[in-house]
Design goal:
The chain is mainly β. It has two helices and 14 strands; from the N terminus they run ββαβββββαβββββββ.
């Protein structure tokens, strides 16, 4: 395929250099010459580069962070990644999943696919402050309706379970089964109670084993 472009004139395609006295148009234009289409259009554009490969890993069920393959627990919120003996206690799982050793109280945050154990003598602090609440701050990091130091849940030696909103109070409030808690006052928790932190985050209290509940 060729395209006519203006040339230097003079020569015709049939090799003749003159018209021999013919004044009319003979089908040739002495001011044009034929060239290849590629010389007119220029080189074809290069194909676009392939897209960057997607990052590898799995999403944490607790805080949605990207975790490298094979990591047993999320380094951000300590949620359990994938299956295993503790599935459901630290990230998803069914209601019949076994509790971790030494834990008989668990808070199940269904909307976050997160479960946090409460062990005797180790109060579970709930908030966004990484130093004050290391076990929960990763999961709540972007949830501004949860205060930096919101509340604590503890299990006493007699088996009773309690929640206490921080003595300074919170901007977003704490509720148990719809009842608003007063700052600094302990409130008894029982199996099946709904604990709510602010207006968007809530969990179900699960208590197993012997002892009062």
């Amino acid at each position: 395929m060729t395209t006519p472009v203006r040339g230097t004139g003079g020569d015709r395609d049939d090799g003749s250099n003159r018209y021999d006295g013919y004044d009319g148009y003979d089908g040739y234009d002495d001011d044009w010459e034929s060239v290849l289409d590629e010389e007119v259009r220029g080189p074809l554009p290069l194909p676009p580069p392939p897209p960057d490969s997607a990052p590898t890993g799995v999403r944490c069920p607790g805080c949605a962070a990207l975790v490298p393959p094979g990591t047993p627990r999320c380094p951000r919120c300590l949620a359990r990644i994938g299956g295993g003996g503790e599935e459901g206690w630290g990230g998803g799982g069914g209601d019949d999943a076994p509790a971790p050793p030494g834990a008989r109280v668990v808070l199940r945050f269904d909307t976050l696919a997160l479960s946090l154990p409460v062990r005797p003598g180790e109060p579970l602090r709930l908030g966004r402050d990484t130093d004050w609440a290391p076990a929960s701050s990763g999961a709540f990091a972007e949830l501004t309706t949860v205060s930096r130091r919101h509340a604590s849940v503890s299990a006493d030696p007699d088996g009773s379970v309690w929640v206490t909103e921080e003595s300074d109070g919170t901007m977003n409030g704490t509720w148990v089964n719809g009842a608003h808690l007063l700052p600094g006052e302990r409130h008894r928790l029982r199996h099946g109670d709904r604990l709510q932190l602010g207006h968007r985050v809530a969990c179900t209290v699960r208590i197993t084993g012997d002892g009062p509940c």
